[in-house]
Amino acid sequence: MTQGTAIGARSERSRYLTLSVGLIAAFVVSVVFGLNLTRASAGVATIWLGSGILAAALLLLPRRWALGVTAVCFSFQAAFNLRFNPPLISLAFSLLCLGESVAIAWLARKTCGQTMRLTSLKRVSRLIVFAVAPATAASAVLAADVLTLFGRSFNDVLGAWFYSHGLGVAIVLPVALMVARRDLSADFRRGTLEQVGLYGLIAAASVFCFLPVRFPMALTVFPIVTLIAVRLGPRGAAISALILAAISAGLMLNDFRPATGATWTLLEKTRSLQFLIAVSFFTSLAMALAIADQKRLKRLWAGRTRVARAAQARAIAAGQAKAEFLATMSHEVRTPMNSIIGFTEVLLRRDDLPEAARRQLGLIDRAGASLLAVVNDVLDFSKMEAGEVALVRRAVAPRVIAQDALAIVAEAARRKGLDLQLGFIGPVERPLMIDDLRVRQVLLNLLSNAIKFTETGRVRLDVQVHEDDVARALRFTITDSGVGVPSDKVERLFRRFSQVDSSVSRAHGGTGLGLAICKGLTELMGGQIGVESGVGAGSVFWFEIPAAPAEAASPAAAPAPATAQGLGARILLVDDHPMNRELGATVLGLLGCEVVLAENGEEAVEAARVGDCDLILMDVHMPRMDGLEATRQIRALGGESADIPIIAMSADVMPEMEAACLKAGMNDAVGKPIQIQVLHAALVKWLERPQANTEAEAAA
Q1: Each residue of 314-338: pLDDT tens digit?
Q2: Contact 255, 223 (CB under 8 A)
Q3: Residue of 555, 546, 561 whose CA lies nearest to 399
């Protein structure tokens, strides 16, 4: 046995010894009080508390301790009873009280559980109704039968026994159980001085109740027990009931003469004591238990709030870890893909390629595009789950969006020999306030799926604008003559990571996220998406979004095709990866640019200090000095360096990184892998702005 275990065992024995001595002492006092106070014709105590104390011992103590306390209490009661009754009747009384106590304890465990925690008025009521009342009623009947053998009246014994034992146990058993449980005062911890003062008040009020004055001094008890219930809780209410009972019992053993001049009989005294203790105790107990329950609920709420906050903190940490993981994986996957897709595009622009080599490069290009689509789908879906997708609405004509989308998928449709068709309904040339980037994303996903799953026939896009006096609704419908989808599996299409069956993934690839992303984006824009399909009958996918009319059109023109001439700009390309620098220099050369190379942020700052570049393409993650710090230092140089366009070109395409780039002073961002058309559009956009500003200044 360890030292800690030995100390715990000694502490437990000490607690049980103290409790046993206290219960024996209370039983002795209750027996003396009951037998001295009672000499009615039936020979039954007017109020009997002993059975409740003995039942409390059976409930609170382990079996060995309980048996010892029971033996002592039984012996004392039998011996003390000999002062008032013959030996046989004394033994009968003692056995009946013992049986009553055992029955009460057994029923209490069955109805209130093993712990006997009286934490609510409902539990106290259950104890009295289902344990105390049946046991005392049964013992009253049995006592009446037994005592009739000794010449006592059955009805007198039955009524007196049930009233005195039932009321006595109903009062003393809850009191004993609550006084013994210190945990009931956990929410009502008060200073020693306050406790002594409150218990002193109830002791004084108990004495005042018996003053020979005309004023009913018993009324002073109730505000005091109410105050004790509020301040000291259920255990305090129980202790105050004990104090009231002890002092009142002692005073009632002496005769008194109220101011009215009438003399109360012993029975009247006892009944008044019973009423006073019962009403004050149960009134204060109900209030104390209600307050304790409120405190318990408050404590429970505080605990659950702490748990919820901890869970929220864990969820935030998990979300941050997920975002960091996605950013890292995106960067690591996109970096090699940049070279694969970029050099493939460069090679496809050569005129001296053999046809077989061009076909093989085309396969590599399509495979790279598919892999990039998978990475983009995962990132887009992660952004939507995290609520990081923000809408940017601007005035765009629906006709332009539809024509751009068809132009992008036209080559894929041509390779399969499909007929691409476009139809318009309504004023599609008028600009609407929509997020054209997200609309294009949904539209391209649906068009790509239609082409992917259609081997022969056609793919048709219809654009319709519904008008009313306040707003407009924009609807896109994509119809194909493909394999179709079984009607019982249509509802699975818009679930994440879900396809019609596993053969679809093997035959056509994909993650099963595309349509889930379309649904999420459409709902984010306040619209809805749906499909009508059947096996062998093709499919009709549609989505509709609300679109407010714009005052003026600012249609997004399709980017001009990249050529080897036309830009004529001097570009500073900053990247730490040799392959990325070679690829970037090659692509910029195709676009007619002169290229200056830098390997890190420090070299970029020095090159910008010279001031002979028109634009800077800046990688973000670099050793020695990253792109963000390099941008800040370039802006701090002042002069022309403060206005030179800086475009981030990074494999980290998470929204947080793009926001960090703009905050550091960059003008725009393009993601890797490098797509020549996208890069050309960004260069044209930012190279034309300084030229326009210069012309405006010259005109002024």
Answers
A1: 888 887 787 777 767 766 777 777 7
A2: no
A3: 555
Q: Is 486 helix (H, G, I), strand (E, B) or coil?
A: coil
* pLDDT at residue 267 in the model: 56
Residue 260 has pLDDT above 60, yes or no: no
Cα angle vertex 336, ends 332, 341, to 5°? 130
Number of neighbours of residue 225 by Cβ within 10 angstroms: 27
What is the pTM assigned to this prediction?
0.46
CB 179, CB 238: distance < 8 Å: yes
Average pLDDT, the chain: 80
Strand partners, 549: 432
CA dihedral 282, 286, 288, 289 (to 10 degrees): 120
Q: Residue 598 above 90 pLDDT?
A: yes
CA 152 to chain centre: 69
Tens of pLDDT, residues 68-104: 999 999 999 999 888 878 888 888 889 999 999 999 9
Q: What end-to-end distance do the CA atoms of the chain give, in Å?
A: 97
Residue 505 has pLDDT above 50, yes or no: no
CB 124 within 8 A of CB 173: no
**What is d(CA 459, CA 477) in angstroms, rounded to the nearest whole number?**
10
The letter for the amino acid at 53 is I
* Cα–Cα distance, 500 to 486 (Å, whole number): 8
- Other C-beta atoms within 10 Å of 657: how many? 21
3-state secondary structure of 528: strand
pLDDT for 105 equals: 93
| Dihedral angle of Cα 105, 110, 114, 115, to the nearest 10 degrees | -80
Ordered DSSP codes for 446-461: HHHHHHHT-SSSEEEE
State both tokens at 125. Answer: 């009521």
Lookup: tokens for 607 = 């090159």
475 forms beta bridges with 464, 544
| Torsional sign, CA 486, 491, 493, 496 | negative
Tokens representing 237 are 């209410």
Identify the DSSP state of 387: T
- CB contact set of 667 (below 8 Å; sequence gap of 6+): 645, 646, 647, 686
Place of tokens 């034992």: 165
Instruction: For residue range 58-77, list pLDDT tens digits in order.
Output: 998 999 999 999 999 999 99
Q: CA quadruple 99, 101, 106, 111: dihedral positive or negative?
A: positive
pLDDT at 175 over 50: yes
